[in-house]
Design a protein that fits this description.
It is a single chain. The chain has 311 residues and is mainly α. The longest helix is centred in the C-terminal third of the chain and has 37 residues.
């Protein structure tokens, strides 16, 4: 009797510790939570560092005893950053520079992806391979020919330098977005389109009445990725726009470069700029964080359905 009780107790302990399946034991859950906490810390640490230091005054910055908790919340850093970035005007320009091409690129990628997924036409495999090759080719190789083309047609200094490539499926990372739509539309059952054809629907009607409503998660994830890439694209923006248009990351970069020329890194005065620079960085990424928090449910669903995880 005592032996049976001992065996039962040991079995219960083993079940709680390791579980009955592959992923329901305490050990497995503890390992998973530790990994998630560790990965989360790696991603959140830069954000926490920027947020805390952006509220530090000069006394806190030079005080080695102050690390994570400022002695007072110093909002003057944000006031200076707003003034330096000309935040209201620059934010509106950034929203236009990132939003319009991202929207047009999403529409173009959906149409092209649907065409590759649902239609057969001559040289389809060759064209699909060339489309994928555009993702592999570095931007630095095509940058100067594209610049000379825009200069020839007098497009420099305008948003058209981002709009036309987006419409033609050659915007930033367009090949990736086309591939996302291609993979999604490939998974739509053909019987749905066949039923629509029997009812007299044409290809265009099937596309916007059946395919597009089902592809909403993919549309959201493509728009978000495209919006973020256009938002952060400082090199091409500085090259194509000149002084006619600007974006927040570009203005922040110019401010940091100008300040570093006056106070080189390592000099005592350079530390004065650190908190203002971090406040400007927080203001630059704040719209992206707000956009993600609003659309995060559809974003996660889109990642799962579009197969970005490799499934």
């Amino acid at each position: 009797m005592w032996k049976n009780r001992s065996i039962n107790t040991a079995n219960k302990f083993r079940k709680r510790l390791f579980g009955m399946g592959e992923n329901d034991g305490f050990v497995f859950k503890a390992v998973v939570y530790l990994l998630l906490i560790g990965i989360g810390f790696v991603y959140l640490y830069p954000m926490l560092f920027m947020l805390v230091n952006s509220f530090m005054s000069l006394d806190d910055l030079v005080n080695s005893m102050v690390k994570w908790i400022p002695s007072t919340l110093y909002f003057e850093n944000y006031a200076k950053a707003l003034k330096v970035l000309d935040y209201k005007t620059t934010l509106l320009q950034t929203l236009m520079v990132a939003g319009v091409p991202a929207l047009l690129q999403t529409v173009a990628a959906a149409i092209i992806g649907y065409g590759f997924a649902r239609f057969d036409f001559p040289l389809k495999k060759l064209l699909f391979g060339l489309m994928l090759a555009t993702f592999v080719i570095p931007t630095q190789i095509t940058m100067m020919p594209t610049y000379l083309l825009f200069k020839k047609y007098e497009l420099l200094g305008s948003l058209e330098t981002f709009i036309y490539p987006a419409i033609l499926g050659q915007g930033l990372k367009s090949a990736l977005f086309i591939l996302i739509f291609y993979q999604f539309f490939k998974r739509i059952p053909a019987v749905l389109e066949e039923a629509a054809e029997i009812d007299g629907a044409g290809s265009l009607k099937i596309f916007y009445r059946i395919a597009i409503p089902m592809a909403v998660p993919s549309i959201i994830i493509v728009f978000l990725f495209s919006f973020v890439w256009y938002w952060n694209e400082t090199y091409l923006a500085g090259l194509y726009f000149g002084n006619e248009l600007t974006i927040l990351p570009l203005e922040l970069q110019r401010f940091a470069d100008s300040y570093n020329k006056v106070y080189p890194p390592g000099s005592p005065g350079n530390q004065l700029n650190e908190a203002i620079n971090l406040a400007g960085t927080m203001l630059t990424i704040a719209p992206l964080l707000i956009l993600y928090f609003v659309l995060q449910r559809w974003f996660v669903e889109g990642v799962d359905r579009s197969g970005i995880t490799g499934e």
